[in-house]
Amino acid sequence: MLIRYVLIICLLVSTEAFSQGIKFEHYSDDQGLSHNSVRHITQDNTGLLWLGTFDGLNSFDGNNFTVYKSKSKTRKSINNDDITALAFNNSSDQMWIGTRNGLTQLDLRTSEFKTFLPEEDNPQSLPDPEIRALFIDKLDRVWVGTKDQGLYIYNAITNDFTKVEINGFNYIKSIYEDADGSIWIGSNGRGGIAKINLNSAGAVVTIKTYELFVPGSEEVNPYTYFIYQDNKSDIFVGTREGLYKLDKAEDTFKLLPIANTSVRNLLGPYFICVAQAPNGKYWVGTLGGLLVCDQLEDISTGNYEWYYSVLSDQSSLVDNSVSALYFDHSGVLWIGTENGLDKYDAYKNQFKSIKDISLFINDKIPRISGFAQTYDDKLIVSTHDNGLFLGENNKFSVLSNKFKKITSIYTYDGKTFFCGLWNGDILVFNYITRTFTTVDVGFGETPTFAFTRMENGGLFIGSHGNGAVVLNTETNTYNPLLPDFFYDISTNQAFSDADGKLWLATETGVIRYNPLTNEAKMYHSYLRLPGDSLAMCAKDIGIDSQGKIWVATTEGLVYYSRIEDEFTLVDTTGELREDWITDIRFEKDGKMWLNFNNNRVGSYNPSTEQLNVYHINNGIRLDIFSNRGFLLLNDSIVYVPGKEGIIYFPTTIVNDNTVSEPPFITEVKVQNEKVFPGDIINGQVILNEDINYSKRMTLKYANRNFSLSFSSPSYVNVRLNKYQYMLEGFDEEWITSDNNSRNIQYTNLYPGTYVFKVKVQNSSGFWSDVSAYTIDIEPPFWLTYKSIILFILLISLIIYLVHTQIRKSMLLKQELVLEKVKHEKDEKLNDEKLRFFTNISHELRTPISLILGPAKQLIEEGRVTDYQKSRVELILNNSGRLLHLVNQLLDFRKAQTGELKLKVSDTDILELTKNAFNSFKSFASEKSINFNLTTEHDQILGWIDRDKYDKVLYNLLSNAIKFTPKYGNVDLYVGVINDGTQKLHVEVSDNGIGIPPESIDKIFKRFYQAENSKTENTGSGIGLSLVDSLLKIHKATINVQSEQGKGSVFTVKIPIERKSYKEHEIFDVNTTFYDDEVQPKLQPKQVLQSTSLKEKILVIEDNIELRKFIVDYLSDTYKVYEAEDGLKGLLLCRQIKPMLCISDIKMPVKDGFEFCMELKKDDLISHIPVILLTALSDNENQIKGYKLGADGYVAKPFDPLLLKIQIQNIIKSRIDLKAKFSGEVESKINILSHSPVDEVFINKLSQLIEENIQNPDLNIDFLCKEMGISSSKLYRKIKELTNLSPNEFVRTLRLKKSAQLLKSKEYNVSEVSDIVGFNDPLYFSRCFKKQFGFSPSTLL
Fold first, then answer.
1. Of the candidates 1181, 1112, 1202, which has an alpha carbon nearest to the alpha carbon of residue 842?
2. Any idea where the Response regulatory domain is (predicted)?
3. Three-class DSSP labels, 845-870
């Protein structure tokens, strides 16, 4: 292949056919093409391009490729990926795709693929799967050429294929319809060319065949690529042996010879494809590149242009093997090759490039500083680094490389040229004599850009920031021009007007200089809007044929108004008011050429205000070192520096791309999913056909989030396309976007009808028509007319029902008011009952205590006779029952207020049941009732709330015995059942009076008593109500069966598994139960006679009898003091400092809680323990007492012995803690604190001692001073807390510290004694052993 390229170049350089001045754009698989071998190209009605490749079908919108392959996993597609033919039916919008395995029909409206293959049982089916040619005739019939089975016509109505019999034409490669409607068929081998004449109905009339002869060879009918009719109606055939033409006179095809054998061989001679350009020229694809000619016959004479692939030129044809040619609707030529898709843009190729200068500077890109025209119409180019070059017929040669660093060039006659040098000098070049002279004009190292000839013949020269001079061109002498004015002016360009005045474009504005008056005026700004002036940076300045002065600035085009004597921005839109213009040149007819500083040039006609802008890729002028220069040669050719050399174009032949077709939608997404016709999203078929054909899309409310991507069929300079779009009904104005922003998303639109409109401006500024698409957003059901009607009906129904209900409620209101009043009275009465019972219960606890206390005291003392003992026990038993009733009243109150909490524990239930049963034996015996306990178990273990279970049994057994007459029967049964959960089964049955049927449902209500029970017994009516409440708390059930006059059976079922209860309901302790009726045997009390052992005890109780009883009971053991309220108790406590205080809670003046709180806050008495004695036995009051610092809590009525034992334990605990602190090495000082006040005191004192432990002066005086208290108070506080004197306490802390140090084994005994403040180690050792019982060396 490389040799072939070299031969092409060597041959063509020497021939007139050589022409390689155009550029191609390349697309390949790198840009998304499925395969680089592009064989077929066509375009649909929307403007979308379709490409058939060796590996897949592609659509192309100018920006992105969409690939269709046979192995598509998401949608039905083509049957085979090797595309052998492609044809588009304009009237039906169907694309026909021939492959090596099947003929596929693609309906572009619905995106549905349908493939035709041979069918064994269908003679009308397609007989050959491999397709070689396709054609759509004027009657929209599909002609199909196969590889082995000949020619067929497809009938769309019957889906049948009808064969057209042509003898010898089995391999059909080309099908063509001429202007007369005749069909031409191309084959090879046995068949050559066939002409089929049709009647007006499309039926075959005659068939004439032609043979293609190869001169000088016996070969006949070479491989045919195409048949084509030119604009002269001549028929041409492209084959592998060359190009044939039909000789109409002889009615035979003759080969058009190519005389140059080398050229013929380089071309193949494979003539593969042909297309006619909009300008009438013919483009022919061959194996050796592209041929362009005016007439196809010109190829034989060599009168053509030849474009081919050049390895060193990236813009040349990508591959010489050209398979397909297609001119799209905008006139762009698409070229399919074996190595990718090429694009020839005729509009962009109007701008030619000259790269000759690079040949003289080692293939580097020249940095051009200016252009100048000679008197004989040649071109001189100055460069920043490489000197001057002379151009003739766009061929350049070196003019001078002695003076290389040139900043600018100027001539007024085309003979003498003045060049600014980078060193500040002026180079004068005489074109006639080819001589150079340098002149120093005093600019130093400052470059020069501005020259102009003045009316007096002098040459004005302006530097870039170092003044201006006037040069005498005859003597090469100069005079500075207004040095104080021009010393820091950077002049870019200058000219002299008809009045002789100089106009200068500078970086800071425009200067007008009058040589006659030697005065200069600076115009710093221009008017953008009336009254709105902006600073002006002028890059170029000139005057048109009408004498109007124009200025090119960094922000647009400005003109001078002589009347207002000011500069104004042109009154137009777009580039002339926004873009940086670097150069300006004028034609004689007034049209001007502008060089924009962003790869564009433009022509502007001030009279019509028409601006045409062209993209030429000439780069950007950033500073004075960038490319400069802009030349209008003879009003015919424009020269401008380019990125790779010089760009030039003729002003007379610049054509605008006037074709701007409406844009089309390339992609629809709903809910962020790409949508094709027939796709279902959220249960809705979004599109039944492609939106470009239906122009409408309907979306349900759930699908109202969608996005649209669009593109334009204007493929000329695609990246310069601009779009405007709007969603009518949502957007208020058109939104402008460039080619990189072609996707728009809309979310959460309100229901309604919208119209999406989009239009495109092509690269030449021509706008297309608007493409409009209707978007319907359906309302949700709740916004439809049906839902609104249903809603109205529903509201009406509701109003009717509400009205009816109001009427009913008004009738019931009076009844409800009466019922409410009655209910409130009942509730109030019940609450009063409960409050009364509760208060009575609390009041009863104190006298009960005075009954139980002395009675138990008598038993303890053991000084009673047996008879007296039995009487005392009778007192104890009945006072116990009384206490049980009082507690029941309190529990009932708690149950009603929700204060009872469940606390289950692992319990021997049978043992507990027997104790309850035994407590009622005497009661049953009194009435001669047969009282029995029945069970089938030796032991029943389970989780139960012992207290609540005991109360349930008490009430049920009590009622049973109470309402059973003498000699009756009461039975208690206990067992276990398992119905998925293990439960305790308890039955209490009797043969008593029974319950009336009308009362069975009411007996569990509070205060209710059946009528027949009132005559038999008295009661409160709360027993069974309490039972029901307790069992509900215990997650248990109770049922009753009763018959009046025959008795009742109460059945209770209680869950006893641990898993039946929550963690906070479980109280996991071992409990031993005692018979409430059977008191433990008490030993006779031993009275202590030694008063030296008595500790002080303070009793605070407002009830004088109970207080005297407690004082009397404790007086044998303790020295007891008494007070009647908390205030007096607190004063007495501070006075006598008792060992312990016993206080009631409910007292006048100051109650027990207040007493405890104040005592624990007083630092002198806070260490004294407190036992609260009260009838408030509930958990909440106990918790409150302990939080206030109480050390014990005894509920009334109480056992005196229990109180005494609790006192003894608290006192013993305090003494043991003091001893532990003194005698154990590891014990901490904190164990001695019993209140927050004590803890603060002890921590402060111990920290003070530890910080000064080495201080020999650490004594009581030191401590008193640092603690801020008197010595007596300090002594008393330490003594009461620790049972040690202050000195002993200090010594104890020192010895404990020494033990810690010795255990660390970092010090010896002598060192430790010094550290802890002992001066004598021997004394330290004795003290240590005395304190802890072992010597300090033991710890080493």
1. 1181
2. 1096-1211
3. HHHHHHHHHHHHHHHHHCCCCHHHHH
Residue 370 sits at φ, ψ, to 5 deg, of 175, 165
Relative to beta strand 771-777, strand 696-699 is: parallel
Question: Which H or E element spans position 913?
Answer: helix 909-919
- For residues 921 and 1055, membership in a common domain is answered with yes
> 777 with 847, same domain?
no
- Residue 265 makes CB contacts below 8 A (sequence gap 6+) with none
pLDDT at 1076 over 50: no
Same domain, 1098 and 1185: yes
pLDDT in tens, 1147-1196: 888 888 899 888 888 877 888 899 988 766 666 777 888 888 888 888 77
Whether 142 is covered by a domain: the verdict is no
Number of domains in the chain: 8
- Mean pLDDT for 1033-1054 is 90
d(CA 788, CA 798): 15
CB 271 within 8 A of CB 243: yes
Query: Pick from 654, 686, 709: which residue ends a domain?
Result: 654
The first and second tokens of residue 481, run together, are 């021009």
Cis preceding linkage at 854, omega within 30? no
Give the E-state strand segments of 642-786 in sequence order.
Answer: 646-650, 664-670, 673-674, 680-681, 684-685, 696-699, 706-711, 722-728, 735-738, 743-746, 752-761, 771-777
What distances in angstroms separate CA 1170 from CA 330, 443, 1185, one per listed residue?
107, 109, 10
Q: Would you give the DSSP letter of residue 1076? A: S
How many angstroms separate the CA atoms of 493 and 483, rounded? Answer: 18
450 closest CA partner among 421, 408, 387:
408
Residue 483 in domain: no
Whether 1252 is in a domain gets the answer yes
| Cα separation, 1128 vs 1147, whole angstroms | 11
Q: Based on the fold, state whether residues 915 and 1035 are members of the same structural domain.
A: yes
Q: Indicate if 432 and 325 belong to the same structural domain.
A: no
**Cα–Cα distance measured from residue 754 to residue 331, given in angstroms and rounded to the nearest whole number:** 34
Least Cα distance to 954 among 1077, 848, 1039, 1081 occurs for 1077
Which residue do the tokens 């002869």 mark?
Answer: 213
DSSP annotation string for 106-123: EETTTTEEEEE---TT-T
Burial class (CB in 10 A: 0-12, 13-18, 19+), 182: middle
Whether the CB-CB separation of 727 and 775 falls below 8 Å is answered with: yes
Q: Are strands 131-136 and 502-506 parallel, antiparallel or unpaired?
A: unpaired
The DSSP result for 409-476, as a single string, is EEESSSSEEEEEETTS-EEEEETTTTEEEEE--S-TT--EEEEEE-TTS-EEEEEBSS-EEEEETTTT
What is the pTM for the complete model shown? 0.59
Whether the CB-CB separation of 912 and 950 falls below 8 Å is answered with yes
**Paired tokens of 1302:** 């010795």
Long-range CB contacts (within 8 A, 24+) of 150-159: 151/175, 151/185, 152/126, 152/127, 154/116, 158/124
Task: Judge whether 209 and 166 are in contact, CB under 8 Å.
Answer: yes
pLDDT one-digit tens code per residue, 44-66: 999 999 999 999 999 999 999 99
Instruction: Flag whether 1083 is in a domain.
Output: no
d(Cα 1326, Cα 1323) in Å, to the nearest integer?
5
